[in-house]
Amino acid sequence: MADYIKFVDVTKCDGCRACMVACKNWNDLPTVTEEYSGSIQSHAKVNAHTWNVITYNEHETANGGFEWLFRHQSCLHCVEAACEKACPEDAISHTEFGSVVIDHDKCVGCGYCVQNCTFDVVELATYKDKHGKEYRRAQKCTLCTDRLEQGLEPACVTACHTDCLIYDEKEKVLSEAEQRLAKIKERFPNANIYNPQGIKGTTTVYLLADKPSVYGLPENPKVPLSQIVWKDYAQPLGKAMFGVTTMAVVGSVIAHAMNREKGEHKGGQDHE
């Protein structure tokens, strides 16, 4: 099939949350209540049972006015996905549609994907087996891969009444996005198309009204070198030489190093 992407033009979003409802309905996700924080935003962020959230950011206009900047927050389905690199069980992979999905039969709930997700969208959900024993599995947006396999659009896209969300051929969408960007530059001088090449692009691409950081997005995300070395070199070689048991130990050591690296990176950002 043609190379398709989900495109999000945040300047067309009116914050109606229809995409959130459609996602819950299609994926049969349970209700998640949160303590009221004083914000009109329904959830602080996406979580294991809420796979997309409309975020609200207060924005002061050039003439001193005020408006809301909305964003449809969900998994971006990175071409080079840090969660996939971090997974020691090969439970995370890319589909033919470019979506990043989790195989729950392979997932052991270790949480390395959660700790290393570039956009902080993966979370662990807790379940109980027939004996009442609790276990955890990683959860996030699947880009409605089950719908794509049937020739349907993602549920969130079908529910959007402003055409903020589009699922179409990549080249066509990006060409139209450039035209749209040129039109809104006068109103939003910092507007940009967010498709970070440090992770080789994403299957969910944004037209943002302001800098990525305004929306809580990293300006130029990259997969840490330690994750690339672990997934692409150390893990395959280790399995061939030492066996799965030994690799579990090696994986634990490398995962610890990755987590420390991420923590140091965040600490450096805070210091700045």
From TrEMBL:
<keyword id="KW-0677">Repeat</keyword>
<feature type="domain" description="4Fe-4S ferredoxin-type">
    <location>
        <begin position="66"/>
        <end position="97"/>
    </location>
</feature>
<feature type="binding site">
    <location>
        <position position="160"/>
    </location>
    <ligand>
        <name>[4Fe-4S] cluster 1</name>
    </ligand>
</feature>
<feature type="binding site">
    <location>
        <position position="83"/>
    </location>
    <ligand>
        <name>[4Fe-4S] cluster 3</name>
    </ligand>
</feature>
<feature type="domain" description="4Fe-4S ferredoxin-type">
    <location>
        <begin position="4"/>
        <end position="35"/>
    </location>
</feature>
<feature type="binding site">
    <location>
        <position position="75"/>
    </location>
    <ligand>
        <name>[4Fe-4S] cluster 3</name>
    </ligand>
</feature>
<dbReference type="InterPro" id="IPR051555">
    <property type="entry name" value="FDH_Electron_Transfer_Unit"/>
</dbReference>
<feature type="binding site">
    <location>
        <position position="141"/>
    </location>
    <ligand>
        <name>[4Fe-4S] cluster 2</name>
    </ligand>
</feature>
<keyword id="KW-0408">Iron</keyword>
<feature type="binding site">
    <location>
        <position position="156"/>
    </location>
    <ligand>
        <name>[4Fe-4S] cluster 2</name>
    </ligand>
</feature>
<keyword id="KW-0479">Metal-binding</keyword>
<feature type="domain" description="4Fe-4S ferredoxin-type">
    <location>
        <begin position="98"/>
        <end position="127"/>
    </location>
</feature>
<keyword id="KW-0004">4Fe-4S</keyword>
<feature type="binding site">
    <location>
        <position position="19"/>
    </location>
    <ligand>
        <name>[4Fe-4S] cluster 1</name>
    </ligand>
</feature>
<dbReference type="InterPro" id="IPR017896">
    <property type="entry name" value="4Fe4S_Fe-S-bd"/>
</dbReference>
<feature type="binding site">
    <location>
        <position position="13"/>
    </location>
    <ligand>
        <name>[4Fe-4S] cluster 1</name>
    </ligand>
</feature>
<dbReference type="GO" id="GO:0046872">
    <property type="term" value="F:metal ion binding"/>
</dbReference>
<feature type="binding site">
    <location>
        <position position="78"/>
    </location>
    <ligand>
        <name>[4Fe-4S] cluster 3</name>
    </ligand>
</feature>
<feature type="binding site">
    <location>
        <position position="87"/>
    </location>
    <ligand>
        <name>[4Fe-4S] cluster 4</name>
    </ligand>
</feature>
<dbReference type="Pfam" id="PF13247">
    <property type="entry name" value="Fer4_11"/>
</dbReference>
<dbReference type="InterPro" id="IPR014603">
    <property type="entry name" value="Formate_DH_Fe-S_su"/>
</dbReference>
<dbReference type="GO" id="GO:0015944">
    <property type="term" value="P:formate oxidation"/>
</dbReference>
<feature type="binding site">
    <location>
        <position position="117"/>
    </location>
    <ligand>
        <name>[4Fe-4S] cluster 3</name>
    </ligand>
</feature>
<dbReference type="GO" id="GO:0051539">
    <property type="term" value="F:4 iron, 4 sulfur cluster binding"/>
</dbReference>
<feature type="binding site">
    <location>
        <position position="110"/>
    </location>
    <ligand>
        <name>[4Fe-4S] cluster 4</name>
    </ligand>
</feature>
<dbReference type="GO" id="GO:0045333">
    <property type="term" value="P:cellular respiration"/>
</dbReference>
<protein>
    <submittedName>
        <fullName>(4Fe-4S)-binding protein</fullName>
    </submittedName>
</protein>
<feature type="binding site">
    <location>
        <position position="23"/>
    </location>
    <ligand>
        <name>[4Fe-4S] cluster 2</name>
    </ligand>
</feature>
<feature type="binding site">
    <location>
        <position position="144"/>
    </location>
    <ligand>
        <name>[4Fe-4S] cluster 2</name>
    </ligand>
</feature>
<feature type="binding site">
    <location>
        <position position="107"/>
    </location>
    <ligand>
        <name>[4Fe-4S] cluster 4</name>
    </ligand>
</feature>
<feature type="binding site">
    <location>
        <position position="16"/>
    </location>
    <ligand>
        <name>[4Fe-4S] cluster 1</name>
    </ligand>
</feature>
<feature type="binding site">
    <location>
        <position position="113"/>
    </location>
    <ligand>
        <name>[4Fe-4S] cluster 4</name>
    </ligand>
</feature>
<dbReference type="GO" id="GO:0030313">
    <property type="term" value="C:cell envelope"/>
</dbReference>
<keyword id="KW-0411">Iron-sulfur</keyword>
